[in-house]
Specification:
It is built from eleven helices and 17 strands. The protein is α/β, with parallel strands linked by helices and 397 residues long. The protein has two domains: 180 residues, Rossmann fold; 145 residues, Rossmann fold (3-Layer(aba) Sandwich). A nine-stranded mixed beta sheet has the order 10-9-8-11-7-4-5-6-12, with helices on both faces. Strands 14-13-15-16-17 form a five-stranded parallel beta sheet. Helix 3 packs across helix 4, helix 6 crosses helix 10 and helix 10 packs antiparallel against helix 11. The N and C termini lie far apart (52 Å). It comes from Paraburkholderia sprentiae WSM5005. One of its GO terms (biological process) is fatty acid beta-oxidation using acyl-CoA dehydrogenase.
Length: 397
Amino acid sequence: MNTLKRIDPRRPFTVTAQGRRRITLGVVGEVGAADAGNASRADARHAAHGEQPKPRRTTATPHHVLLVAAHADRGALDEHARQTLAAAALIADARTEVVLLVFGEFTGDAAALGADKLIELPMFDRRTYAPDDELNALAACVAAYAPAHVFLPDNATGDGELGRRYAAAADASVATHVVEIDATHVSTQIRANTARASRALPEVVLLAPHAVDPKLPFVGAGERVAWRFDGDAEAANAQRAIRDLGIDEIDAAQVALEEADFIVSAGNGVSDVPAFERLATTLGAAIGASRVAVDDGKFTRDKQIGATGKTVEASVYIAFGISGAVQHLQGIKDCRHVIAVNLDASAPIAKRADLTVIADAQETIAALNQAAAAARGARATPATLSQPGKLAEGVLA
C-alpha cells in the first residue's frame, strides 16, 4: 500500500534568507534561485567562517521605512512575531530601515531579530485590554515614520485584531492570512486551501504563521528610540467604546490544553498519577499526557498531546517520562520552552528540549512536591529560614 502523503502542488513556499523554498519528500527546492544567488553565496561564506558575527543588513542612509508591530510576552516576541519581523527585514532593500513597535516590555535583542529601530511601549501590558489606546499608538507611530508598509502577525492574541482595526480606521489596503510574501506581492490561500489569491504588496500585511524563516544571516542596527505615547491625552479626545472588565482567574486544570500557557505532561515514566496531579496543582499548570499514558488508562483522551491528540503552544512545557515519539513532538512544536525529565539522555525529546534533566521522572516529581511543601512551610514559619540546608537536601534526595 502506498503510504506517501500527497503533496499539495499549490502549497505555499517559505521565505528564507536564501530565497523562497518548498520542501517535497525531503528535498529542498528553490523558487527564484537566480534572485537568491547572491544571498546564498553570502550565506555560504558566513557558514564557512563558523561563529563570526553576522554583518549588518545595511548601513546606507534610509529613504523608506517598513514598520512591524507586535505584542511582547514576558519581555520577548513569540515565534510568529519574529517571523513577521524577519519578513520585513528580508524584503527591505539597502535604503529601507525596519522599525519594530513593541506593545509591552521588551528585553530581547532587536538587532538580532532584524530590526534597525526599536520603539517600546511598556505601558501596554498584555493582561490589560486597551484596543483603542493601542490603535491610537500605532496610528501615531505611522504618522511619525510614514512607513511604506505595516506588518503584524495574524494571530488571535491582539495583533491580528489591531491590524484589522488600523486598516479600517486608516482606510488602508490590507491582506490577511498571508502565506506567501516577497518585495512585490502577497498571497493567501482560498477555496479550502486548494488555491491562492495574490495581489501587490498592500499597506497593511497580516502574516500567517510559518510563512517566513526567522533565522537571518544578518542583523539590524537595533537602535532604541525614546518615543513617548500619551494615551491619556488621546483618550480625552475620544469616547471609549470598550471597557476592560479585567481577568477572571480559573483553575489551570479547567483551561483547554490548546489555550494553556504552562503545561506539565506525563508519559510512561510516571507511575504515581496522584503525585503528578498534586505537582500540577502546586505549579498552577494544565495537565497533558502522551498517547502511551492515555492508552494505559492513566489519563482521559482529552489530555493527549500529539499528532493524534492536541497541538499546544505553551510558553513552558515540562515532559515527565516522555521519550518523544515523532507524533508527540509534532504536538509540541510551537511551545516556546520545553523541559524534559527522562532517564535516557538520547531520547528524541532531549533534542527538542531547551533543558533536559537526566533523572527518574517519578523521583523528580516526589522531590519537587517535597520542595514545594518545604517552601510553603518556610513562608508559614519564618524560623525555618535559619535551616536552609533542609530544602536543598530534599531537592537532591
